[in-house]
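EI: anyone free to look at a 200-residue chain?
SC: sure, send it
EI:
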Amino acid sequence: MKKSQSRVVLFIPLLLISAFAAAAPGPESQLKLIPEPKEVRVQEGSFHVRAKTRILVEFGHQAEDRIAAETLAEEIHDQSGLKLNITGAKSESKQEAPKEAGDVIVLARVQDRRVRQFLESKGLKADLIGDQGYLLFSDRSHLIVAANTGQGLFYGVQTLRQLLRADGQSLVCPAVAIRDWPSMEWSSLRGDIRRGPIPV
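SC: here you go
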């Protein structure tokens, strides 16, 4: 066999192996989130939601963000029977990092400097997310959903609801770093539902 033919014979299996490796689903695709976030990074570990876990909402946005917090608490109760308390906290923009960790799910605004700096240290920047986007970070000791607005926070909570899985007497959220925003932001007019949402 000529050298050129033997090279071709060896090259074809290499192409097939690399094609299968590229097609193999990564851990991000196993999450099956709808809609699929723009950026997802799966990490080692998980956050455990237990009976003593609290949902923390900043006082300054508590009225607007209460719906997202209650939706999350209801999801957790439906999946596990756990009834989590929803508590408030002052925005402490002078702090360098969030004090709350461990048994707290933090629903926050990226305008809070300590939250923004903490998330940026984990590779999640708040640029591009706009009014309807969000950041979601979890590891063994933190579970944070942050956004610019209550609407963005609500969308982040919808993603978090999909991430939670039963694990004995608790729920677990895989360690992830997610950044998502809509390709086009939508606003709807209440008076005329026949025309559907109108882009802004």
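EI: The beta strands are 39-49, 54-58, 85-89, 104-109, 134-138, 143-147, 165-167, 170-180, 186-187, 198-199.
SC: 👍
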